[in-house]
Specification:
- This is TetR/AcrR family transcriptional regulator.
- By secondary structure, this protein is mainly α.
- The protein has a single domain (about 5-155), classed as Tetracycline Repressor, domain 2 (Orthogonal Bundle), CATH 1.10.357.10.
- Helix content is about 75%, strand content about 0%.
- It contains ten helices and no strands.
């Protein structure tokens, strides 16, 4: 049976790596600095994870598990209409910073994470299309990928967005402001379906 203290140390190392990778990036973070933040020895870190690359893989898997869990909770709340006890956005904030740093650094592992997030978003769009009265002109996968890119644009561009809004959008108050604004955007069409058809015809006319 695993030693409970051993499991606790492993979790602390993972959390410390998540914070360090988000703050300074994978290349600048070191085994020694992560171990120090976790309150363990570099040797114990290597015992649990072997290498910094393997540790990043473990953090990636943890982040994606939490994102999937949050997605499932929101999906269930959407189905039942009960959002009273849905996702803890405070708990998800470190993951936003982690993803933003990975996107800035061009991390190869973030590419896989983006694909998985886009797949989840595509499922949401497919479900929403079932209640649409107007026929979509583009496929689920294209719209899912674009929605994912738009959402990830918030943590990626958080410094510029924070400057314009006058508040750190990755703080509790800033996150609340962004979330409420996103709900407004999602729930109210920017243009009418008629205007969209006119724009589509003008930009991309049907061949004769």
């Amino acid at each position: 049976m695993p030693d409970p203290d051993d499991l606790t140390a492993r979790a602390r190392i993972r959390q410390a790596a998540l914070a360090q990778f988000a703050e300074v990036g994978f290349q600048k973070a070191t085994i020694r600095s992560i171990a120090a933040e976790a309150g363990v020895s570099p040797g114990l870190l290597r015992h649990h994870f072997g290498s910094k690359e393997a540790l990043r893989d473990a953090v990636d898997a943890y982040v994606m598990d939490e994102i999937r869990r949050a997605n499932d909770e929101v999906s269930e709340a959407s189905r039942t209409g009960d959002f009273a006890s849905t996702v803890d956005r405070e708990a998800l904030r470190p993951f936003q910073r982690y993803l933003a740093r990975g996107l800035l650094d061009g991390s190869p592992t973030v590419a896989t994470m983006f694909d998985q997030m886009a797949a989840m978003t595509t499922q949401w769009i497919a479900a929403a299309d079932e209640t649409r009265t107007d026929r979509p002109r583009t496929d689920h996968r294209t719209r899912g990928a674009l929605y994912t890119a738009m959402v990830l644009g918030v943590p990626l561009l958080h410094e510029h967005l924070s400057r314009v809004l006058g508040i750190d959008v990755l703080s509790a108050d800033g996150d609340r402001r962004v979330a409420l604004a996103m709900l407004d955007i999602y729930s109210h069409a920017l243009i009418s379906t008629e205007l969209a058809e006119q724009a589509r015809a003008a930009l991309y006319p049907e061949p004769p």
